[in-house]
Design a protein that fits this description.
Elements lengths: L6 E6 L2 H9 L8 E3 L11 E2 L1 H4 L9 H7 L4 E3 L3 H15 L5 E6 L2 E5 L10 H16 L3 E6 L2 H10 L5 E3 L5 H6 L11 H9 L13 H8 L5 H8 L13 E11 L6 H17 L2 E12 L4 E12 L2 H18 L6 E13 L9 H17 L15
Parallel strand pairs: 2-4, 7-8
Antiparallel strand pairs: 1-6, 1-7, 2-3, 5-6, 9-12, 10-11, 10-12
Helix pairs in contact: 4-5, 11-12
């Protein structure tokens, strides 16, 4: 691979479920589902590869998952603990990169440009990273390496689980041209089905049609310029001062937004809130994001009267934002991605005269106990303030 930009995408395999199977050997090779056990309502956060064989996917109602696999083992998520493990893993991984951009609790982009003198090849470097992750944490990961972020992510997806896929620059066009349209993260299921009806199965098939015709059929995101820019994206977020915290979940299949998603949104809120508290911040702006089946993206933000790092407050506002978006703006019937972003950060300077200080102290005390004992020894409950 020529010494242009070299980017890896590292994805921890079935991260939440893998941690639970690691910590409890009885769960090994079992269909493990991270989510509340029926009759409780909720959706699947993630599941083991054994569970996926039954057709179980993220965001699926837990009741449906249980019908598909009656022997499935449901495990309540331990978001604070997963965050702790994630932080430790990526602290190790970061040593092997020029820059690292963490894009979720279980994935990150690594800039490997110029590191060949230290290793025989990029494949050897990827192997070294995987070996160190497994040696220190007994968890596997998949790594894709290419000259752009999008292609490296596609590569890591295609070598899961526990694989490495290197896309050399001189083989990039062949790799892209014969990828199924559905493999591209910017082409949703509905658009993919529309394209297949036109005989567009692989990426190369796009170029049989006039650009205006394609835009009319599936939207402007399909423009060649957009695709070229997207496929060659190499920029990294390198902010030295934290300006925001965000997390997103892309569903295995487009799904209808329902009350059952509140549990998943609560988990996402917990992940962000813990990061706020660890860095001694509160957020005054909460932004919710939805991407529908047509790959249209919508966002709504709320500015709080008082900054917060409370999981419950963040979860409820994020959910309400998403509901409002669906009622007023979102055109598609199904949701492909949901996200939460916290910004308007202020340092937490709580003192005994603050109105919410007792609650803030209690929240931080829970963090301390969980950190001390290594697991969620204390679980936080969520109160759903849904309007009736």
């Amino acid at each position: 691979m020529k010494e242009d930009r070299v980017i890896a995408h590292l994805d921890l395999d079935s991260f939440f479920a893998s941690i639970e199977m690691r910590d409890n050997p009885e769960l090994k090779d079992q269909p493990v589902i991270i989510g509340r056990k029926p009759p409780a309502r909720g959706v699947v956060s993630t599941c083991s590869y054994e569970a996926r064989k039954y057709g179980i996917k993220s965001a699926m109602p837990v009741s449906t998952a249980q019908r598909l696999c009656p022997k499935a083992i449901f495990v309540e998520p331990r978001i604070d603990y997963y965050n702790k493990v994630s932080k430790e893993i990526f602290s190790l991984v970061e040593r092997y990169s020029v820059f690292m951009e963490k894009t979720g609790i279980d994935e990150a982009y690594l800039d490997l440009t110029g590191l060949i003198p230290l290793f025989h090849s990029y494949e050897d470097l990827a192997k070294e990273i995987k070996e160190q992750v497994y040696k220190n944490f007994k968890l596997t990961c998949s790594i894709g390496v290419s000259c752009s972020k999008v292609i490296s992510k596609i590569a890591s997806d295609r070598c899961k689980p526990d694989g490495i896929l290197i896309i050399e620059k001189d083989k990039l066009n062949d790799f892209i041209n014969f990828l199924p349209i559905s493999a591209f993260p910017f082409i949703g299921k509905k658009s993919s089905e529309s394209l297949k009806k036109l005989g567009i199965i692989y990426f190369k098939d796009l170029f049989q049609y006039d650009l205006g015709f394609l835009i009319n059929k599936v939207g402007s995101f399909i423009s060649y310029y957009y695709l070229k820019q997207f496929l060659h994206e190499t920029s990294f977020q390198q902010n030295t001062t934290q300006k925001s915290y965000s997390t997103e979940t892309t569903f295995d299949e487009d799904c209808k937004f329902s009350d059952e998603l509140f549990n998943l949104i609560s988990q996402m809120a917990s992940e962000l809130a813990l990061r706020l508290r660890e860095d001694n911040y509160k957020a005054s702006v909460i932004t919710s994001k939805i991407r529908d089946e047509d790959f249209e993206t919508y966002q709504k933000q709320i500015t709080l009267s008082e900054p917060t790092f409370d999981d419950n407050v963040i979860a409820n506002i994020a959910f309400e934002n998403m509901e409002n978006l669906l009622k007023s703006k979102v055109k598609g019937e199904k949701v492909r991605l949901i996200g939460i972003k916290l910004s308007g950060l202020v340092k937490d300077n709580s003192n005994l005269f603050d109105t919410n200080v007792k609650k803030d102290i209690a929240i931080k005390k829970v963090d301390e106990l969980n950190k001390k004992f290594g697991k969620n020894i204390v679980q936080k409950g969520f109160v759903w303030r849904k309007k009736v």
